[in-house]
């Protein structure tokens, strides 16, 4: 139904006064469809992305008949066009997000195309990742100068790809320490986005992409003493989770709060993974076999992340008491306890199982109290996965397994139904 | 207004850098291609089925390893300066490896260590900085068959013509059965 029709109807049934109707009409006249505008921005970005990719593909054709000089000149052509678009944006279209994002993405893609083509024309050795560092370093100012948040997202994806490639796939030993510096280059812009456009879709995407990128790359620092990295990951997820509770994300919905979601899910997955015996079986031997613990970078990464999470927990815990009621803000400390027990006895895995039980029950209770379906079911899910995982390392009869499955299914239904009834009563 | 001027200046500066870096890359390669000395690196017969990875031909050379003395331990990924000599057939052979920059007059190329084996007689495998030849995306099937047949045949002579200046290298052309790939193109077209 159109706005005009709806207003007429509301007027007729005397829900709103004539004055209110007039004010509503004026508002929509002054602010023509934000949804339409967003579509234009999205089409602008998509257009720039697709056409630049088309150019790359056409050029990757490697025209044999062209001379090297001609090919080189063609390599610079898209970059020239994108730069002109950027100049026009600064000159005439500042503040128009479709122009800012479109020209930003255009420069990003055409810069990559230019480097890629030069590497083909002159037969550069090695994989494309060797060029991606140059590409990213050349491109990061675009986000700042043109205020293009999509370019910033592409940059973060690019440095993640680069650091992931050199740390996980390259044959020569390489650590992704440079990644830290590359990420630092874009963080001030991310800060600016949070301060000025916190509700924008691209800012919300940043809340997901930044923690996801760090999660992917952290494992790349692993060398010989991988066991410390579990502590590092637990503390990292706690750091994300606690960050997600800060006032910056107060107005975000759960789905918009990437820090909280990644922190929560990451911790839960790690807990379940470590509830099996395999990790704890060899831990004491591994620790004894490794000397020079204090020289291992993994140890220091774990230490720094744990201290950072603890400081943040203390600082934010003073301001927002609600954090102290969140199990996922503490899990890393409980895991530390398990880890040090694990140095002496492999039965530490029982402790991990107890933690999962505790976290599961706590989450279910909190969900029930706050009438939050998502939280309730997340707690139930943790519980269920714990039960199913224990099936793998024990010889329980099929009958008992079957009965447990039925009981768990019933539990899910019962808990949700009870909450539904509770909500209904409350609404009445 | 002041803000806008600063943004404009920053933008111009950025554009300058974004043009300067690729141009410099080209110039470096160009000066090697013009002034560098020519070397022929003989290619080893192929044992893989598909040498055309996407759009490039993966090059393997007969001189990709050298028995180094055991005084120096080579690690995978190390920079290595490969000293070059020419044999009677004018092809390159390796005469030594060093970890420090050789004298400017020597013939050498900067490369990386792929891996090293053995203790007493250390066998060092070398990755040269010219292991890819980018080729037409829609390479005709007939040409691909001809190239593949020759690359697999150990009796044909295949080599890469490389220009080297002060240790830096540029791949100039690849010769299959002593005929350059671009000439193969022309022959197939006719």
How does this structure look, described?
Chain B: This is GDYXXLXY domain-containing protein. Chain B: It holds the Pfam family GDYXXLXY. The complex is a heterodimer of chains A (428) and B (190). Chain A has a domain at 224-428. Helix content of chain A is 77%, strand content 0%. Chain A contains 18 helices and no strands. With 190 residues, chain B is α+β, with helices and mostly antiparallel strands. Chain B contains three helices and twelve strands. The longest helix of chain B is centred in the N-terminal third of the chain and has 34 residues, at 2-35.
Fold blueprint:
The complex is a heterodimer of chains A (428) and B (190).
Chain A: H1 3-12, H2 18-30, H3 34-59, H4 68-92, H5 97-121, H6 129-145, H7 149-169, H8 177-196, H9 201-218, H10 227-244, H11 258-274, H12 278-281, H13 283-289, H14 297-319, H15 331-342, H16 348-369, H17 373-392, H18 398-427
Chain B: H1 2-35, E1 37-42, E2 52-53, E3 56-58, E4 65-68, E5 79-86, E6 92-98, E7 108-117, E8 122-127, E9 132-134, H2 141-152, E10 159-165, E11 168-176, E12 179-180, H3 181-189
Antiparallel strand pairs in B: 1-10, 2-3, 3-9, 4-8, 5-6, 5-7, 7-8, 10-11, 11-12
């Amino acid at each position: 139904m159109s706005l005009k029709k709806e207003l007429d109807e509301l007027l007729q049934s005397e829900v709103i006064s004539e004055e209110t109707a007039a004010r509503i009409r004026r508002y929509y006249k002054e602010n023509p469809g934000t949804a339409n505008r967003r579509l234009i921005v999205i089409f602008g970005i998509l257009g720039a992305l697709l056409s630049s990719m088309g150019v790359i593909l056409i050029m990757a054709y490697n025209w044999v008949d062209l001379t090297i000089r001609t090919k080189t000149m063609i390599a610079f052509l898209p970059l020239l066009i994108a730069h002109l678009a950027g100049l026009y944006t600064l000159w005439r279209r500042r503040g128009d997000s479709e122009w800012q994002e479109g020209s930003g993405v255009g420069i990003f893609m055409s810069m990559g195309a230019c480097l890629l083509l030069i590497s083909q024309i002159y037969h550069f050795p090695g994989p494309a990742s060797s060029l991606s560092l140059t590409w990213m370093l050349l491109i990061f100012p675009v986000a700042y100068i043109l205020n293009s948040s999509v370019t910033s997202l592409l940059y973060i994806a690019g440095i993640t790809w680069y650091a992931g490639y050199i740390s996980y796939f390259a044959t020569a030993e390489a650590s992704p320490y440079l990644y830290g510096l590359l990420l630092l280059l874009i963080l001030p812009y991310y800060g600016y986005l949070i301060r000025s456009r916190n509700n924008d879709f691209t800012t919300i995407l940043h809340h997901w992409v930044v923690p996801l990128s760090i999660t992917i790359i952290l494992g790349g620092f692993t060398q010989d003493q991988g066991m410390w990295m579990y502590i590092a990951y637990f503390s990292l997820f706690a750091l994300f989770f606690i960050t997600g509770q800060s006032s910056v994300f107060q107005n975000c919905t759960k789905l918009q709060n990437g820090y909280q979601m990644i922190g929560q899910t990451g911790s839960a997955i790690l807990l379940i993974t470590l509830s099996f015996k395999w990790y704890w079986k060899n831990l004491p031997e591994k620790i004894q076999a490794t000397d020079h613990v204090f020289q291992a970078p993994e140890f220091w990464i774990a230490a720094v992340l744990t201290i950072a999470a603890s400081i943040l927990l203390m600082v934010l815990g003073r301001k927002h008491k609600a954090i102290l009621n969140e199990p996922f803000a503490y899990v890393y400390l409980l895991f530390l306890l398990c880890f040090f027990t694990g140095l002496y006895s492999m039965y530490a895995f029982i402790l991990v199982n107890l933690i999962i039980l505790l976290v599961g029950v706590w989450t279910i209770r909190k969900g029930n109290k706050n009438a939050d379906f998502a939280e309730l079911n997340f707690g139930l899910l943790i519980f269920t996965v714990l039960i199913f995982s224990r099936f793998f390392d024990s010889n329980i009869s099929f009958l008992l397994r079957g009965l447990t499955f039925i009981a768990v299914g019933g539990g899910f239904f019962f808990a949700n139904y009870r909450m539904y009834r509770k909500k209904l009563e409350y609404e009445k | 207004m002041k803000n806008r001027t600063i943004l404009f200046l920053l933008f111009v500066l950025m554009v300058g850098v974004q043009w300067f870096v690729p141009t410099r890359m080209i110039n470096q390669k160009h000066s090697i291609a013009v002034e560098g000395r020519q070397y022929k690196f003989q290619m080893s017969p192929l044992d893989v089925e598909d040498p055309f990875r996407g759009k490039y031909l993966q090059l393997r050379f007969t001189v990709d390893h050298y028995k180094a003395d055991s005084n120096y331990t080579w690690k995978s990924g190390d920079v290595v300066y490969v000293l070059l000599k020419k044999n009677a057939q004018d092809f390159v052979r390796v005469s030594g490896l060093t970890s420090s920059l050789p004298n400017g007059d020597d013939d050498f190329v900067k490369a990386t260590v792929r891996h090293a084996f053995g203790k007493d007689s250390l066998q060092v495998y070398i990755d040269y900085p010219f292991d890819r030849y980018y080729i037409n995306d829609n390479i005709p099937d007939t040409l691909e068959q001809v190239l593949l047949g020759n690359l697999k045949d150990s009796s044909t002579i295949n080599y890469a013509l490389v220009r080297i200046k002060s240790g830096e290298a540029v791949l100039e052309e690849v010769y299959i059965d002593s005929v350059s790939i671009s000439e193969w193109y022309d022959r197939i077209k006719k």
